[in-house]
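Appendix B. One record, verbatim.
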Amino acid sequence: MSSRRIPRPAIIDVEASGFGPSSYPIEVGFALTDGTRFSSLILPDPDWTYWDESAEKVHHVTRQTLSRYGRPICEVAAILNDRLKGKSIYSDGWVVDKPWIEKLFFSARIRQMFQVSSLETILTERQMQIWHETKRCVLADFKLIRHRASSDAFIIQETYARTLAATNANDAPLAEARMSNGD
């Protein structure tokens, strides 16, 4: 089976303390191919001090919430390895999510046991063309809280599944026409 035919790829999403290189992960969530979802707030490492209030306005997670409900970085890294070991998991924000995940594992001093890849590596051009409109429909259908890690991972996964189904449905008449023409 080609990677482009994954009906529901595993998706990971990270919320962070800010938008720049000094930021750090504050929440990680994923949605797996079997429908399993997970999310955890992350208690910041003592060396992680940067906080951007404009990022807080996006994800609505305060420092106090992290202090009260966040899990230690070693615990979060261990959970991720336990549940994702050997898997390929995709991110729509790979350029920022991957470094935040690496920061988590580096600070926890735990080797990461799963691969994080860019969602674009499994999207077709046709899926990309209908992505934003499809995502708007997913958001309207599920009315999930955005910018929380597991909700965002599910939204991305569902958008992928719907764009794949739509492009496969559009490809079927073309394939049938090719077959009847002897192509």
